[in-house]
Amino acid sequence: MQKIFKIAFIIIFIGQIAGRWFSSPLLDYIFKPLIMPCLALYLYFSVQGRLSKFIKFIIIGFVFSWLGDIALMLEKFNSQLFLLGLAFFLVAHIFYIIAFNTHIQKPFFQEKPLLFVPLFLYGIGFFYFLYPNLQGFTIPVLLYTIVITAMAIFALNRKNNVSLLSFKLIFRGALFFVLSDSLIALNKFMLQIPYNGLWVMLTYMVAQYLIAEGSKQN
After folding, report:
1. What pLDDT is attached to residue 193?
2. Is the pLDDT of residue 218 over 90?
3. How many Å apart are CA 71 and CA 145, to the nearest integer?
4. How far apart are CA 218 and CA 210, in angstroms?
5. What is stated as this protein's family in its record (predicted)?
């Protein structure tokens, strides 16, 4: 079954990218709601239904990501849905953080604290860069920046606590997530990025896939 859902994800990935490339709302409405359910089922069957605490928290994160996808997809009909989508993804990242922390016995932070500095600096610097244009979104964006930066930090903290492959896949997924959300923020608050929707969804789908793939390798 996992092969079936992996193939399905490839089809969804191509369909979603095509929708963004051709600016087709129809393709977006068809494929975007399928991304996270497909990855959740792919992960479920990859671990043969053995739901450890780690896998449960990752799948719950996938569910809230799916809710965030739906909210942001419908944002054009109600601008308030942007904040709702932000809230759903914030909760998703909290569950990812909880999941990443489940197997930490010796925090990597204690061994190589300097390696975490770039993540801290990026989170602080990016918020400072956006701040003049945030207006009424200052508090929500600040909270989201803190949480997604923490998600990447906790992903890095897994090093030497899990298999090297699981660490690499999930940490790369976390970095792609930070990139995807940074593109959303830049486009909404700073400047119009050409084909922004395409780059956002490309990096987002890669991020979630790497998290799913790394989770089954744990």
Report:
1. 86
2. no
3. 19
4. 12
5. Belongs to the TMEM86 family.
Q: What pLDDT score does 48 carry?
A: 86
Is residue 52 exposed (0-12), middle (13-18) or buried (19+ Cβ within 10 Å)? middle
C-alpha 97/C-alpha 24 separation (Å) is: 34
Q: Taking the alpha carbons of 153, 156, 162, 167 in that order, is the dihedral positive or negative?
A: positive
Q: Which residue has the tokens 């601008």?
A: 79
Q: Both tokens of residue 166? A: 């699981």
Tens of pLDDT, residues 133-163: 998 899 999 999 999 999 999 999 999 999 9
pLDDT digits (tens, 9 = 90+) for 186-217: 999 988 888 999 999 999 999 999 999 999 88
Dihedral Cα 25, 27, 28, 32, nearest 10 deg:
160
Q: 53: which 2 tokens? A: 């605490």
Cα(77)–Cα(75) distance, integer angstroms: 5
Higher pLDDT, 49 or 69: 69
CB 68 within 8 A of CB 85: yes
Residue 67 to residues 60, 100, 193, Cα–Cα distance (Å): 11, 21, 25
Q: Report the amino acid identity of residue 131.
A: Y
Token pair belonging to 31: 């494929």
Q: CA quadruple 143, 145, 146, 151: dihedral positive or negative?
A: positive
